[in-house]
Amino acid sequence: MTAIVVAIDGPAGSGKSSVSKQAARELGYAYLDTGAAYRALAWMLLDRGLDAGNPLVVVESLGEFDFAVGTDPDQYFVKVGPDDVTVAIREPWVTSEVRLVARLPEVREHLMALFRRIVVEAARPGIVVEGRDITTVVAPDATARILLTASEEVRMGRRSKELVDQSAAVVGEQLRSRDRADSRVVDFMNAADGVTTVDSTELDFGQTVSAVVDVVQRAVLRAS
Ligand code: C5P
């Protein structure tokens, strides 16, 4: 049986990670957070005092990028070599630098090959893969393809609640600026052909997870 792949894309603050992880639990699937790999690469460069803004340095570092991620939604972790960076990669000093590595085609190619290997190894019986270009580039023939969105206001509100020590205005500007930079590389604001949009503006967490699970179950039935 071929593995079931669920591709989920969306902008920052759309609730992608928490919704994808919970949907994976409810479906009994594995979970892959692709943003963690971009973050972990930026973390490695910064940790080594290397210039993440220099494409040559970034591309050269790919050979030493020893990335591991927990694909069990109940045992999520992110490691670079021996270092557990699960928490560190969410720090603002990493978040603000990720765009520098994510914009490079060599990095995207390298990580895409890595993601495809992880999907083949971990998908038992299925896997939920979330990011920015999963529905369009990494897994365009996934069983279910979903764009998870929410209004900018709602996304900013959710992110402010997570980052309690920063002002709403600062959080809002960071979110907008990251989406602007990321959209120059891949389009995750508009659903590509065949991609189902789940708009969570008016939905709570549980309702959003149910909407996603519902799209997946219908797609799986269609495919069987
Ligand atoms: O999803 P998350 O916010 O953790 O992603 C961090 C960053 O990684 C994004 O802002 C984007 O620059 C990059 N990314 C990407 N393609 C993906 C996933 C993440 O470019 N599939």
Automatic annotation (TrEMBL):
GO CC terms in record: cytoplasm
Keywords: ATP-binding, Cytoplasm, Kinase, Nucleotide-binding, Transferase
Keyword Ion transport in annotation: no
GO molecular function, one term: ATP binding
Sequence positions that bind ATP: G10, P11, A12, G13, S14, G15, K16, S17, S18
Residue stretches making up the Cytidylate kinase domain: 6-217
Predominant localisation class: cytoplasm
Top-level class of the enzyme under EC nomenclature: transferase
InterPro entries listed in its UniProt record: Cytidylate_kin (IPR003136), Cytidylate_kinase_dom (IPR011994), P-loop_NTPase (IPR027417)
Enzyme Commission no: 2.7.4.25
Highest rank taxon of the organism: Bacteria
Reactions catalysed according to its record: CMP + ATP = CDP + ADP; dCMP + ATP = dCDP + ADP
Localization per Swiss-Prot or TrEMBL: Cytoplasm
GO biological process terms on file: pyrimidine nucleotide metabolic process
Family affiliation: Belongs to the cytidylate kinase family. Type 1 subfamily.
Protein name as catalogued: Cytidylate kinase
Organism encoding this protein: Subtercola lobariae
Gene behind the chain: cmk
